[in-house]
Design a protein that fits this description.
149 residues, single chain, mainly alpha, rod-shaped, 6 helices
Length: 149
């Protein structure tokens, strides 16, 4: 058996071979990295929630009760304490829309917590303890807040 060591291939220069492939499949030219595009953003302040007139009236009235005291059977006690309707009047300053709406919301909350039979704020106020009255005030303020009024 004889082994043939000669081939019919012509020796190719490796540099020429590399150049041919480079021409057929050129490497992309390096691209300088682009500066990052500015990201637009706004430093927005959180939305400002204004206290509604009803919430303010209820809050001011409860603060009045905390400061001057709560009373039963008196619109204004000789020592300065007031019943719930007296505190509403002091907080509102006049019988305006905020006063009426705050009173309606307070009475509605009193009916929710203590039964539907209450005809007026004074009758409800005079029939309950200070803790029960305060609970109604606080719930009415929360409702006014959630209703944004």
């Amino acid at each position: 058996m004889s082994t043939r060591t000669e081939t019919d291939f012509t020796h190719i220069d490796p540099a020429l071979y590399a150049k041919a492939f480079q021409l057929l499949d050129p490497a992309p030219e390096p691209i300088a990295p682009a500066a990052p595009a500015p990201v637009p953003f706004t430093l927005a302040a959180p939305p400002v929630r204004l206290t509604g007139a009803v919430e303010k009236t209820l809050t001011d009235a409860l603060t009045f009760l905390d400061t001057h005291g709560w009373a039963k059977y008196w619109l204004i006690h000789p020592e300065g304490a007031r019943c719930s309707i007296g505190a509403l009047r002091a907080a509102a300053g006049a019988r305006n829309d905020a006063y009426r709406d705050a009173g309606n919301l307070l009475l509605d909350e009193a009916r929710r917590q203590h039964g539907k039979g209450w005809e007026s704020i004074p009758s409800w106020n005079d029939s309950h303890t200070g803790a029960q009255v305060r609970s109604v005030w606080e719930a009415a303020i929360r409702r006014a807040h959630h209703m944004n009024i």
